[in-house]
Write a structure and sequence with these properties.
- This protein is an alpha+beta fold.
- About 55% of the residues lie in helices and about 15% in strands.
- The strands form three sheets. A five-stranded mixed β-sheet has the order 6-8-9-11-10, covered by helices on one side. A four-stranded antiparallel β-sheet has the order 1-4-3-2, sandwiched between helices. The chain has a two-stranded antiparallel sheet with strand order 5-7.
- Helix 1 packs antiparallel against helix 6, helix 8 packs antiparallel against helix 9 and helix 10 packs parallel to helix 11.
- The chain is flat, with a radius of gyration of 51 Å.
- The N terminus and C terminus are likely disordered.
């Protein structure tokens, strides 16, 4: 950080910034108030013009209605003889509109879409109003601002509807000549007869509106200016002057030849509790700085030595951790190698035991049922032990990093059929119903045949093991076109797994609880091995289960493994994705 003397010359003082802030706030408030005042005055002007137009139209309607109601009396002599005098409501309305407009700038007239007199033809605004009344029979008025020869005017159009008196000239039958010499239009009571149009110049109203806006803005500006001046004076007395005193004191503290500094708080008339407390704390700080300055260099040297010793200790601890890590890596490799060797050595005699049990079973007579039952127990437990040894061996190879994926084109139906043939006998003997199904649109996939067989075999074996007699185990294979994945779902009606133990069953040497181990046996490696193999094939496994409702394990595999392109390129024959589809 630079010193105080290195600050840019552009940096403004607190007074200047406060004044600029107040000025900006004043402009913003003035703009907001001006916009609001203009909107309100404009709304009031429009309301006044609208009310004036409505009054004029009401007066003209009154004259029109008076003539309509007294039309028969006008056209009859004193002895009751009918004598048409050529004075009808349209003529009277037009004459009254001329008289109303003669002494003012207002213009009033009657109009309709197909007038009998061409002078009553509608202009653009009146045509729009008549079309609006035609679309919405409930509408009674239409108004807007318009420009006429450089002059802004307010246009108001009020709808007129056919009354009972109007049907004498405008009713049925259509085409018949009425008393005025025009053919009747065939209109009925309530139909749109035309409209009364009023045009009012807005110059006077606009000048009054701008005068009101200017007066309000000037009054508001005077108030804001007074508030800003008062606010500036108060801030100068309460904040900027005390801050300037503190700044001067800080400069004296920072000087090399500084003498003891003690600032005098502001005058009581302008002091505040916060500023006075700040001055007190500043004086206390200055005293502590003077007291600590003498021993500062010694403290720096002491802290430097402490940091040096701490760095040496950290370096020694890091070397020790590196040595421990190397030793742990070696022990982990030794453990994996030991498991692999032991598992491999156990597998050979176990295979021989099972083979000799088969030979011995073939040599027994049909009357030796007890011996056959004992041999069956040997074979069953031998197969369980062999499966456990295979799982341990596979797990050890995966941990050691020696297990690789051998990709080839795989028909999932073949694997399901192989697992079905090897599981049927076990399921039948336990009294469990076992079934498989493969959807017709499941394609061939690029994967590792043996690893996929072990995945399905382990899941099916687990399902049969944990399903009681009379239960069901099923395998269903489907294809998700959108995800380009094959799903292998293994469902059972077994004991089920609580939701909080779903992740636990995929850990090595772990089962749901010890009662499960005692009742069903197993090493807890089967599902963890399935999880590892599915990950190696680029897939995922989902579990849906609840106690008493069975379990469903779903393996989702891509139809092409992540590194299938390289392997297919080396072996040939997999260069097109269509080659793995049925």
């Amino acid at each position: 950080m630079g010193s105080l003397e290195e600050r840019s010359g552009w940096d403004a003082g607190l007074k200047t910034k406060i004044a600029g802030l107040l000025l900006a706030m004043a402009f913003v408030l003035l703009a907001v108030f001006g916009t609001w005042t203009y909107a309100e005055q404009r709304k009031a002007t429009e309301a006044e013009l609208l009310e004036t137009s409505r009054v004029l139209v009401d007066e003209m309607d009154a004259v029109w209605d008076f003539v309509s109601l007294n039309q028969e009396r006008i056209d009859c002599t004193s002895d009751g003889t009918y004598e048409y005098k050529g004075l009808h409501c349209a003529i009277v309305g037009k004459s009254v509109a001329v008289l109303f407009s003669r002494e003012s700038d207002y213009r009033m007239r009657f109009t309709k879409t197909d007038p009998r007199n061409i002078s009553n033809a509608p202009d653009e605004v009146e045509a729009a109003a008549l079309a609006y009344f035609e679309r919405d029979p409930q509408a009674s008025e239409y108004y807007c601002f318009d420009d006429e020869v450089g002059e802004q005017v307010f246009r108001y159009v009020s709808a007129m509807h056919i009354t009972d008196q109007c049907t004498d000239c405008h009713g049925s039958p259509a085409g018949e000549i009425d008393v005025t010499g025009y053919p009747r239009e065939g209109l009925a009571r309530g139909d749109l007869a035309g409209a009364a149009s009023v045009t009012i110049p807005t110059a006077l109203y606009d000048s009054n509106m701008w005068l009101a806006v200017g007066t309000n803005l000037l009054f508001f500006l005077v108030i804001i200016a007074g508030m800003c001046v008062g606010f500036y004076i108060v801030l100068d007395r309460l904040v900027t002057r005390p801050v300037a005193e503190l700044s001067s004191g800080l400069r004296r503290v920072g000087e090399a030849s500084a003498r003891p500094v003690c600032l005098k708080p502001p005058h009581a008339a302008y002091a505040t509790s916060e500023i006075s407390d700040l001055f007190i704390r500043f004086n206390e700080m200055a005293a502590r700085i003077e007291a600590l300055h003498a021993g500062l260099e010694g403290q720096v040297e002491e802290r430097t030595e402490q940091l040096r010793r701490a760095n040496e200790e950290l370096r020694a601890q890091r070397l020790h951790v590196e040595r421990v890590n190397e030793r742990l890596k070696g022990e982990n490799r030794y453990k994996s190698d030991f498991l692999a060797i032991v598992s491999h050595e156990l597998r050979t005699p176990l295979t021989s035991v099972l083979a000799f049990a088969e030979l011995l079973d073939d040599s027994l007579g049909s009357d030796e049922a007890l011996a056959r039952a004992q041999l069956e127990e040997i074979r069953k437990n031998g197969r369980v032990l062999l499966e456990m040894v295979d799982n341990v061996l596979e797990t050890a190879r995966i941990q050691a990093g020696s297990e690789h994926v051998n990709l080839e084109i795989v028909d999932v139906s073949d694997i399901i059929g192989l697992v079905e043939s090897s599981t049927d006998a076990v399921a039948v003997k336990k009294g469990v119903s076992f079934s498989t199904s493969v959807d017709h649109d499941v394609p061939l996939i690029v994967s590792d045949w043996e690893k996929l067989r072990r995945i399905v075999s382990n899941l099916v074996s687990n399902a049969v093991k944990f399903t009681p007699s009379g239960g069901d185990v099923s395998v269903h294979v489907s294809f998700d076109v959108r995800k380009r994945e094959v799903a292998i779902a293994v469902r059972d009606t077994g004991i089920g797994i609580p939701a909080d133990k779903h992740r636990l069953v995929f850990e090595r040497f772990t089962q749901e609880n010890m009662s499960t181990v005692r009742r069903y046996g197993g090493s807890g490696l089967g599902l963890s091995l399935v999880d590892d193999l599915v990950s190696m094939l680029g897939g995922s496994i989902d579990l849906v289960s609840a106690p008493g409702f069975g379990s469903t394990f779903t393996v989702n595999l891509p139809i092409r493994a992540a590194d299938a392109d390289n392997d297919c390129a080396e072996g040939g024959g997999c260069d097109d994705e269509n080659h793995v589809d049925r």
